Task: inverse folding
């Protein structure tokens, strides 16, 4: 069984005042599918992503990735956060090859892959730079090159472009579209930007406020390959109106 399967999943953070973050989540993400989790701040988007990543454990319910219950993080699930969590003392190259190196992979095996991913993400000229010498968009591209080099089949992205300026954000969305088109990874993409969700995803799950539930599932009928041009079409705007309506109710 491939993909991600979530059934009856709930998550409560324990403590003096327990927080019921997720309630009765059902979700199926097929292999190669790109889904977006869309919802207001605090509805549990990051919690859901962190459960799939294996950083957190469910309080109840079932969560499997490729047929296996998720117990801990694993290299088949690559995570990209809002701020690329790079090692500040390592160069771009060392950051990108860190995973395969730690996994004991031979240099001759990971080197061509790392070079290709740095090429695709437009970073070939910056391999010796330190993270501090890069722009925010470039740091996010290193984060993407890193999970691609790791060979993760599943990309878990938590508002990866949320901290970027509008123009850089569009460039990054285009980059992600081309990467997805080329490698067909399974992607779970968290955002609160409706345009971003429509542009990128096959399926959008709109979540309701706490405790987070899946309120609506929307299939995006816009043809692929997609470009930024699509964001101005009548079809795009109609879908955006529909989603805005769903969110208000
Ligand atoms: N480690 C934690 N311990 C206790 N409560 C937590 C923890 N992480 C998240 N929460 C709570 O769970 C709820 C959901 O948080 P989560 O971060 O998943 O929301 P979100 O949808 O990602 O929000 P945002 O859009 O602001 O990032 C919030 O009420 C939050 O305070
Ligand atoms: Mg979050």
Result:
């Amino acid at each position: 069984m491939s993909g991600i399967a979530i059934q009856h999943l709930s998550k409560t953070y324990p403590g003096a005042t327990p927080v019921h973050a997720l309630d009765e989540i059902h979700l199926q993400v097929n292999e190669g599918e790109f889904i977006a989790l869309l919802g207001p701040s605090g509805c549990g988007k990051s919690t859901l992503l962190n459960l799939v990543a294996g950083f957190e454990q469910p309080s109840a319910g079932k969560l499997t990735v490729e047929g296996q219950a998720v117990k801990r993080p694993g290299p088949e699930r690559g995570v990209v956060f809002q701020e690329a969590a790079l090692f500040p003392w390592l160069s771009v190259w060392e950051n990108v090859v860190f995973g395969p190196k730690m996994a004991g992979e031979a240099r001759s095996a990971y080197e061509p892959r790392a070079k290709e991913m740095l090429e695709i993400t437009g970073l070939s000229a910056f391999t010796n730079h330190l993270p501090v010498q890069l722009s925010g968009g470039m740091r996010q591209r290193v984060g993407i090159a890193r999970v691609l080099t790791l060979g993760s089949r599943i990309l878990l992205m938590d508002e990866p472009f949320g901290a970027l300026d509008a123009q850089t954000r569009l460039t990054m969305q285009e980059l992600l579209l081309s990467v997805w088109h080329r490698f067909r990874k399974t992607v779970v993409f968290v955002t609160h930007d409706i345009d971003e969700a429509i542009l990128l995803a096959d399926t959008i799950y709109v979540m309701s406020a706490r405790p987070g539930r899946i309120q609506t599932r929307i299939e995006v009928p816009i043809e692929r390959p997609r470009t930024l041009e699509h964001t101005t079409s009548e079809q795009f705007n109609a879908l955006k109106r529909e989603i805005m309506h769903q969110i208000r109710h």
About this structure: The first strand starts at residue 4 and ends at 13. The chain has seven helices and ten strands.
